[in-house]
Amino acid sequence: MSLTVRPHFHHYKNKMGKPTSTNRDWTQIYAIYGMDQWQTLLFLLCHAIFFSILSILFLFYFDPVCKLLETGVLLFTTSASSTGAARFAAGFTGCVMALSAICLFFAAGNFFYSSVALHHDMAQRMVSYVNDWSSVKLALDIGCGRGILLNAVATQLKKTGSSGRVVGLDRSKRTSLSTLRTANMEGVGEYVTCREGDVRSLPFGDNYFDVVVSAVFVHTVGKEYGHRTVEAAAERMRALGEMVRVLKPGGIGVVWDIVHVPEYVRRLQELKMEDIRVSKRVTAFMVSSHIVSFRKPDQHVWGLSEVRLDWRC
């Protein structure tokens, strides 16, 4: 069996070129899936509130703050210039705190949006890269987490009347149990199986899956070495190689990730993958993200593959 990569996805975009949700708002998505790394969101919100309070205090107590600063400035300047310097310092500090609060609130909002609504929207886009789900017998979601992408794949299998199944792989058994609960809530529990394992050594044989997908996960592989180290990059490339290994000839791989996408493209070229496509940039978690899709050739092909930058995605 040889699947094809679908090149156009206009029905998943609005006029601004951003992905749009399909009949669901963020409250419905959050009610089922919640969110990962809520500690990060709490950290951002607490600091945003802290800087907001400080900036308000500077606004309401501007003159006392200026007098306090003026006593310190007097130690280094003449009395004539101390007042102006103190007012400038107080105003500048208050502005910095206010801007910091705004930036932190924006970061918290973007983090929440990326974890919930955007994750769901991108999952819908990713499943649309596969042209014919009815012929898919086995699919794999690497780093399935809460199951947003996993259940999107299972929904496609259910819609097309396929007898196939999708396997969700995650590092934690506890996460796998939570993912199965969300699958049952979505009504696709019979299409979903979860396994615990390491993406760097997948517990599956060669040429096992028709489709392999992954959403904002591969960049976390090797994080124990630090994200920018050679060791971490080697671990990510090892994980990508494992994805290709378990993919059947003619099968489709779709990866949505942040930061390291150029590395993935180079590695896929080295592995002689075909129909490599890179989507238009989408901001997620305050950084650039892209969807990379590829097809495993039916036969081994020599030479680097062509990379298509499909900006219409």
Automatic annotation (TrEMBL):
<feature type="transmembrane region" description="Helical">
    <location>
        <begin position="88"/>
        <end position="113"/>
    </location>
</feature>
<keyword id="KW-0472">Membrane</keyword>
<keyword id="KW-1133">Transmembrane helix</keyword>
<dbReference type="Pfam" id="PF08241">
    <property type="entry name" value="Methyltransf_11"/>
</dbReference>
<protein>
    <recommendedName>
        <fullName>Methyltransferase type 11 domain-containing protein</fullName>
    </recommendedName>
</protein>
<dbReference type="InterPro" id="IPR013216">
    <property type="entry name" value="Methyltransf_11"/>
</dbReference>
<feature type="transmembrane region" description="Helical">
    <location>
        <begin position="41"/>
        <end position="62"/>
    </location>
</feature>
<feature type="domain" description="Methyltransferase type 11">
    <location>
        <begin position="140"/>
        <end position="253"/>
    </location>
</feature>
<dbReference type="InterPro" id="IPR029063">
    <property type="entry name" value="SAM-dependent_MTases_sf"/>
</dbReference>
<keyword id="KW-0812">Transmembrane</keyword>
